[in-house]
From TrEMBL:
UniProt region (Disordered), positions on chain: 262-301
Amino acid composition bias (Basic and acidic residues), ranges on this chain: 280-293
Protein name: Uncharacterized protein
TM segment ranges: 147-170, 323-343
Transmembrane keyword on record: yes
Record bears the keyword Transmembrane: yes
Keywords of this entry: Membrane, Transmembrane, Transmembrane helix
Length: 469
């Protein structure tokens, strides 16, 4: 068993540990954007655990760091993932951050035993969906109930986790996760934990019956032989139909359920197979190399169609965002040209209010001069960052009574091959919008005129434009 961990800033800077590969950096960014308090993945022979926590060094501004921990097991079942394992995980988080002189500002997750007990109905429903490869999105309402439900599902799946599942508890939705427990969620939600109800699912009883069926101890021995999630789903459906769980006259409805939910039909059981008799598990393939732990598993045909449609819609959204950003860049350039002609002859004084621009550095000592400045560095950057952009500095909540020049510090050297833009977060639409204001960019800093109060951040294109010719 091999352990590795990594500690990251929201901007993708590695602060400590040996876990620094590209997949870990991208995952850290996702956990920061969703304010994830706990992330668990058991895919590809690797146990990944992560959390985004608020921290502060003495005499410095509050900050956010993301902690990831990876455990590779040498075949066999996944290491236990239960309350005690999560407790031990957060103890390691606190100990390793304390060694870097960080103090946790959060009280900590409510994972105490017995808090917010949940019933079996919602658990069986979620279990049935997860085993058939369908995601489950829950809204929490009560934090203690979030963890109670989370551990109830984990406990039910424990013998089967090696086939690969992902789980997260967060403030906002994290895409492409099997089980999401969020404070709020836009779009389709399967379970409301505040009322312990399933929300408007015509196949609720079918999923719940499959979830109850999967708890059979003898069946668990059969399912434990699956080497992948698709194989697990196929084996479960084969046993479900072979055990005559589908009632007479209900086969058409069951076929409609599989077709409507995009679940592949079950393969025929082995010749002479008998319900309740454990068959030898299929041969388990060798554990993938540690460098390949981020490779996705093969997807069923229905999932591939769903994924292709999602990619198509994302490409359309990306095209619209690029068009909006392009228009914003043109407007910014036009304003910059006007300002250049006005500022050069001295017609327009800079800064606008005649006072020095406040200089904000992430995690810098708080000076007396800055104590009266109404600029607050956000612990968590708002989500919905355009796919073709990346932040090069922290996000700030800036309050101004009149237009004010502000110097913001970047986290990377300036490149002439990139463009830079200032964007303001529109809370009502939950999107970042370009600000029509010129930028004075120097090495690792940018001076911008802030027209109104709001949340601002500097962005650049993720990849520099390719040379023509």
């Amino acid at each position: 068993m091999h352990d590795a961990y990594g500690i990251f800033t929201p901007d993708g800077e590695a602060l400590g540990g040996t876990l620094t590969d590209e997949y870990a950096l991208r995952l850290a960014e996702r956990l920061d954007e969703s304010s994830a308090s706990l992330y668990i993945s058991t895919k590809h022979g690797v146990l990944l655990m992560g959390t985004a926590v608020n921290v502060q060094k003495q005499g410095r501004r509050p900050d956010t760091v993301i902690y990831l921990e990876r455990t590779v097991w040498e075949g066999g079942p996944v290491p236990a993932v239960d309350r005690s394992a999560v407790h031990a995980f957060f103890e390691r988080v606190e100990r390793r951050l304390a060694a870097m002189e960080y103090a946790l500002r959060d009280v900590g997750p409510e994972i105490g035993a017995g808090a917010g007990l949940v019933g079996a109905r919602t658990t069986d429903y979620a279990l049935g969906r997860l085993l058939l490869g369908r995601p489950v999105v829950c809204t929490a309402g009560i934090p203690s109930r979030s963890y109670a439900f989370f551990f109830a599902v984990l406990n039910a799946l424990q013998p089967l986790l090696s086939t690969g599942f992902t789980f997260v508890i967060a403030k906002r939705i994290v895409p492409d996760i099997d089980l999401v427990v969020a404070e709020t969620a836009a779009g389709r939600v399967q379970v409301d934990l505040a009322t312990e109800t399933v929300t408007n699912d015509a196949w609720e009883e079918m999923y719940r019956d499959i979830g109850r069926f999967s708890r059979n101890p003898v069946l668990r021995q059969i399912l434990a032989g699956a080497s992948s999630h698709p194989a697990l789903t196929g084996s479960l459906l084969a046993e479900y139909t072979h055990a005559n769980r589908v009632p007479p006259g209900g086969k058409n409805r069951f076929a409609a359920f599989l077709a409507e939910e995009g679940i592949p039909r079950a393969p025929k059981p082995p010749e002479g197979g008998t319900p309740g008799i454990a068959r030898p598990p299929e041969e388990r393939p060798a554990r993938p190399d540690e460098a390949d732990y981020a490779k996705p598993p093969p997807r069923p045909a229905a999932d591939r169609l769903e994924q292709e449609y999602a990619v198509h819609m994302e490409q359309k959204r990306t095209a619209r965002r690029r068009l909006a950003i392009g228009v914003g860049v043109v407007l910014v350039l036009m304003v910059a040209i006007l300002v250049l002609f006005l500022v050069s002859p001295g017609l327009l004084p800079l800064p606008l209010n005649g006072t020095p621009a406040p200089h904000i550095t992430p995690s810098a000592p708080i000076t007396p001069e800055q104590a009266t400045v109404l600029i607050t560095r956000l612990n968590t950057t708002p989500g919905n960052i355009p796919a073709d952009l990346q932040g090069v500095g922290s996000a700030y909540d800036i309050t101004v009574a009149a237009p004010q020049n502000v110097t913001l510090e970047l986290t990377a050297d300036i490149s002439t091959e990139r463009f830079y833009s200032l964007m303001r977060y529109n809370a009502s639409g939950a999107i970042w919008e370009p600000v029509e204001t010129p930028l004075v960019v120097t090495n690792k800093t940018v001076v911008a005129s802030i027209p109104t109060s709001g949340i601002y951040r500097v962005f650049t294109n993720r990849t520099p434009p390719q040379p023509q010719g």
